[in-house]
Every structure is written in structure tokens, then in C-alpha cells.
Amino acid sequence: xxxxxxxxxxxxxxxxxxxxxxxxxxxxxxxxxxxxxxxxxxxxxxxxxxxxxxxxxxxxxxxxxxxxxxxxxxxxxxxxxxxxxxxxxxxxxxxxxxxxxxxxxxxxxxxxxxxxxxxxxxxxxxxxxxxxxxxxxxxxxxxxxxxxxxxxxxxxxxxxxxxxxxxxxxxxxxxxxxxxxxxxxxxxxxxxxxxxxxxxxxxxxxxxxxxxxxxxxxxxxxxxxxxxxxxxxxxxxxxxxxxxxxxxxxxxxxxxxxxxxxxxxxxxxxxxxxxxxxxxxxxxxxxxxxxxxxxxxxxxxxxxxxxxxxxxxxxxxxxxxxxxxxxxxxxxxxxxxxxxxxxxxxxxxxxxxxxxxxxxxxxxxxxxxxxxxxxxxxxxxxxxxxxxxxxxxxxxxxxxxxxxxxxxxxxxxxxxxxxxxxxxxxxxxxxxxxxxxxxxxx
Length: 442
Prior knowledge:
CATH topology of the largest domain: Rossmann fold
Strand content: 5-15%
Structural class: alpha/beta
Number of domains: 2
Radius of gyration: 23 Å
Largest sheet: 7 strands, parallel
Number of helices: 18
Shape: elongated
Number of strands: 13
Distance between the termini: 33 Å
């Protein structure tokens, strides 16, 4: 099957789960192409190595509208790939007489699909997919979109235009994948039909993120300072200021604790975290490790005593599942889908969001009773809800089809079955111009 993945800025250090998934799909014999904006060059080289060059990456998207000259070049290139599709794009845009930046961006984004012949199109994030609502009527393959959390819970807050763009996009797609039941319920506010929604949690490669005998363990003889770890970009949604406040409380109670935060430290939230560290006098206790590779994240997890997730909002935090797969005790906030995968008192400790005292109390409980932490970690390792689905998807790829003819037959049959499963009245049809009305996609 030919799969087209549409994602912003690929690959990125804070979204390793996307790269893992696409590589595994390729190992199963599917043809995978990524339509994206340019990502991290070093990660791109690593990804090509891991996929043996089989993953096709087209970094042709941009968040900025092209100028008239650049747009003309894009039109010429797209016409060379698919003249009919290009004419439909131009007819849909310029017949309305709107040639401003928004329409230039919509045109450039739609032209990026020229020449693509996928059997299925997957938009990796809902807010990014909403930007392509104008192009969706032109796309013939079934369209899937995944909701991860902030894309539907935070992006539209106070932004009626974004809310309407999301609503329009959800009308156009064939399936809406939600990483948690909590997110599945949230899509109802956008008028999403329940029959469109599929709950599919994030998978973890439990062959790669695995507990080993050499891993650092809470209460281990000879250990002195307790090492806390969080993984996620420096953004207010991650609640790091609450984590830092909990750290200060723990130090004030006489515990020797340090805190490492792994994640992109170049965004707007980085300044707030650095200021909090300085104001609380925690400079000697906190390490901002910046973005790390997959191997480096695994090494950090292996060296951690406890994993802490102080977030104020989440869909389903993949780093928490990786920590559990490695046998690291976890303390998380009761947000989003975290309560669905971390069972309080059984596979981890769940505390209220925005409550640094409760967070400090939970960490202190495990510091004072290391055996309780080890029991939680052991239960997390055995929790089928957290790991078995990811293990099945990621550790046991189907063998690729043998022979070109067999591969082609397999692809066509699989695509036909997918279309049959997704068959429904197509809201993308019937628009002669191929684009939504101007007031529906702004």
C-alpha cells in the first residue's frame, strides 16, 4: 500500500514516535512517502540510515506564503508532475479573485500533492491538517487525521477561526484517530461523527526501550543523589514550573535530588523555565539537556531513578510509556489520557495537575520507600494496556511481499479493502472548484 504522511517539520527530536512508525510501516512492505517542511538535518541523515534509504522524504512545505514569482515556479513544477491536478488547484483558487497571501499559501500547499498517487493519506496532527482543508476536496485517497492533544485542546482556545478550520477539516476527513479516550470525547465539540472516531494509543518499541540489569534503580546501594527525569519540549503545557517547585520543596525537606529535562529548549517556553530555575535558586540541581536523539533518551531513562510528568495537558505522553517499558517508576499528572495508561497506585502514581505539593509528596513517598517504586515499575512492565499493542505493532512487522507482482497485487487489494471499510458519502465531492468557500477555511 502507498501511504502518504503529511507532517510539519520532519523529522524532529520531540516527535520520534512518527519516525518509528513510518520506518516500521516500510518494514511491513508499504511504500511510505512524507510530505513535510524541512526538519533537523542530522536527524534526517540518521533516519535515512535507519530506514536504509527506503523512506521517501519530500521537505517541500512551508508555513510562509510564497511570493508571486516563487508561486509561479511551484505551479510550473506541479504542472510537470500532474497538469490536470494543477489546473484544478488553480481553478479552485483564482476563480474567486482572491490572490492574497492566504490563498497563495493554500495554492502552494495544494500543489505539493501534485503527482502523488497514494492509497491513503495520513495527517499526523489535527491543527496542521486544518491548514490543508482547502486542498482536501482535491485529494482522491481516503484521508485520516490523528489528534494528539494540544492540536485540538489548546490550539483553538480563544481562536474562533481555528475552531472553524478544525470543524471544517473534520467534516472532510474519513477517519479521526485519537490517542486517548479523553481526546475522542473532546472531538465531539467540533461536531465529529462518533462513527469516524478511532481510539488508537501510541505504541512503544519495547524491544528498544527495555529494562536491563544494568539500569539504575531506586534504592540501589551506593546511590546518593536521586535523579528525576522529564522528557518533552520546554513549553508551558508541560508544566515544568510545577515540577521545579516540587523539586524546591523536596530539597527543602532535606532530600538530595536533581532534575534533568530533555527536550527542545529553543521555543518561547524556554525563557520561562530558565527564569524559574534562577528565581528558585535551583541552578545546581537542574540540567536542561536540550533535544536528544533516540539513543540519548534511552540512556537518560536508564540513568533515572524516577520519571516525572508535571504537564497541565496531554493527549498520551509517549515518553511516559517508554519510561514504564524500561522499568522506571513514573509520577504523572491526571491530565488527558494519562489516567488511562497509568493506574494510580498500581503502575505509577497519579497526582492532580498544577499541584506541586502533591507532586513533591508523591516523589517523596517513593524516595522513602524504594520498594514501593520498584513494585510500581514491575507492574508497569507487565501492563498489557500500556505495552502489548505497541509491541505488536512495532516489534513484529509483517514480512515484505516477495516479487513485484505479488507486492502490486497486495497493494491494490489492501487499498480496495481500505476504501470499502471507509466507504461513506464523500463530503469532498460536489464542489466544482475543489475548494471550500472562503469563509469556511479561515
